[in-house]
């Protein structure tokens, strides 16, 4: 289980007949988050005691949970600067993803609202022609 200090929401579901037991198609997840070395852990919007090590540990737990469910996964760390959009774009173009999980460090602190918008806008632009019946771009929540 992901520690409560690292909010995340699992939203992907393996479609019937496509799970690990059938060996047909595997769900592929992209976990997008801030590069832990770029996070200002003194931000009061973040949980007290959060560190880069805890972020990396939480990421490792999430990746293990994805693997345990039979899902393939990639991590895309972004920096809170002008490189964020192009980094997300490169990651999205590298393969087809069934689900994108946006980490709490991008979604939750109010000062990252502009960064969150860049990520969502890049995601929307890059997936607008590739969204299939199993992919939804709505329902984002904390």
Q: Could you describe the 3D structure shown?
A:
Strands 2-1-3 form a 3-stranded parallel sheet, with helices on both faces. With about 140 residues, it is α/β, with parallel strands linked by helices. It has a domain of about 90 residues. α1 links the parallel β1 and β2. The chain contains 4 helices and 3 strands, in the order βαβαβαα. The longest helix is centred in the middle third of the chain and has 17 residues.
Kindly summarize this structure in a few lines.
With 142 residues, this protein is of the alpha/beta class. Helices cover 33% and strands 13% of the residues. It has a domain at 37-127.
Q: How far apart, in Å, are the first and last alpha carbons?
A: 17 Å
Sequence of secondary-structure elements: EHEHEHH
Low-confidence stretches: 1-22, 129-142
Rg over CA atoms: 15 Å
- The total count of strands amounts to 3
Overall, the morphology is globular
Overall pLDDT level: 78
Strand order of the largest sheet: 2-1-3
| Class by alpha and beta content | alpha/beta
Largest sheet: 3 strands, parallel
- The total count of helices amounts to 4
Question: Could you estimate the helical fraction of the residues in percent?
Answer: 25-40%
Strand coverage percent: 5-15%
